[in-house]
Write a structure and sequence with these properties.
By secondary structure, the protein is an all-alpha fold. The protein is about 70% helix and about 0% strand.
């Protein structure tokens, strides 16, 4: 069998396994984070989490298949390991960048939600104080 084909098979097996592992980890642990971001709405958190995982699979598996082609043929064991290390290294970097991108976006959404919660006063206003009527106002002149 041609060593280039062996490199392709090993690359696909490892890349797909890594993508599945990272996607499952993100899906399992991201659900809790999304529930917090979405104010405890578990059903919506599950739906968003599933959509993010599907998008993660599509982007990463698409990249893995596009990056499969090797312009130089693999002729010996050394070339096999070199080709695999470069290809798998790039796949790992792409997986890491995708993961950091997901965390960044979710953190932005979470921060926006926290800011909206902080802007709502915990107690409704009891009344309105006009200018000069508050405790910081200057005392009224004596007659």
């Amino acid at each position: 069998m041609d060593l280039t084909v062996v490199a392709y098979v090993i690359y696909l097996l490892i890349s797909v396994a890594l993508t599945v592992w990272v996607a499952r980890t993100l899906g399992r642990n991201g659900k809790v984070f999304l529930a917090d971001v979405l104010h405890g709405n578990e059903k919506l958190a599950d739906a968003v989490n599933h959509l993010l995982v599907v998008g993660f699979y599509l982007v990463n598996l698409g990249f893995v298949t596009l990056y499969l082609r090797n312009s130089d043929g693999v002729t010996d064991a050394r070339g096999l390991f070199e080709a695999l290390s470069v290809k798998l290294g790039v796949v790992l970097l792409v997986l890491g960048v995708m993961h950091l991108g997901n965390v960044y976006v979710l953190n932005k959404i979470r921060r926006r939600g926290l800011m909206e919660r902080e802007q709502t006063p915990p107690v409704a206003p009891q009344g309105w104080t006009g200018p000069g009527n508050g405790p910081w106002a200057a005392p009224a002149p004596r007659a």
